[in-house]
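Researcher: Next entry in the queue.
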Amino acid sequence: MLNSNKNLVELKNVSKIFDIGRGKKLHAVDDITINIREGEILGLVGESGCGKSTLGRTIIKLYTETSGVITFDGQDITGPIKGNHRKNYAQKMQMIFQDPYSSLNPRMTVEDIIAEGPDACNLWPDKDRKNNVAKWLERVGLHASHAGRYPHEFSGGQRQRIGIARALAMNPKLLICDEPISALDVSVQAQIISLLKELQVEQNLTYLFIAHDLSMVRVICDRMAVMYLGKIIELGSSGDVYERPKHPYTKALIAANPIPDPEIEKKRTKTLIHGEIGSPVNPKPGCRFAARCPHVFDRCRSETPQLRGDNQQFACHLDV
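Model: Structure for this entry, 320 residues:
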């Protein structure tokens, strides 16, 4: 949980734009300014294709931002990072990927997968390699004897535990969790979430937790950022955003989130979003949600709203 007012990550007007040819540019991440505080779990939610994963990969420098400034732990990391600088930041920032099947090299043993990062950065003496791998395997709920096996010999949940061990073996400060449970069985999801929460406290980690399940993010995250077509449209404490949403899109997104009690769910009035989803390719001026918003007016189509507010910010021209 949040234990510091210090910003570990700061993004200022960060964009990631892909040139897809014929004069078309995909604005996957568009002019985002946001901070991640040291020791917190920041949830990033939104529909598939809104740019959540691209934002995470831009922070960790798998993608180089098109414009804007990124600061990590007080250091400007804007632009390409190469050589020793990349190794240095690889130790501090790690990622858990969505698909536990494709994220592990099928030709490498579990020991080599977990030790790959520490080997590249000379973090472990050779004599400690096996013991360190065994330690991390046991910490994530596996057995030291699994070190000699290959990824295909494990279930999806076990593979994700290997991915977690691989990330934590680097002793990072920031862990970007890119929908780490969405590809897993429901019975396994709670186990992985519980493990991540335990490790966050033990290792004093900061998480960017990317997900589409708002009710889960509401429970495990300190703050929640809602993303729509490359833009952050609402940001605040998870409780405030979930219980008292201000942006029309956030309200509709939460209203569409199912309630576990079937009787309550059956009686609930749902807010449907009508209209076509806009495109992040050569986007038009104005609010990205304008084509689907029930409250749209002329200003929405011509002027892009900026985040406003104090503890709970939202990007909307409406007075809420």
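Model: The mean pLDDT is 92.
Researcher: Noted, moving on.
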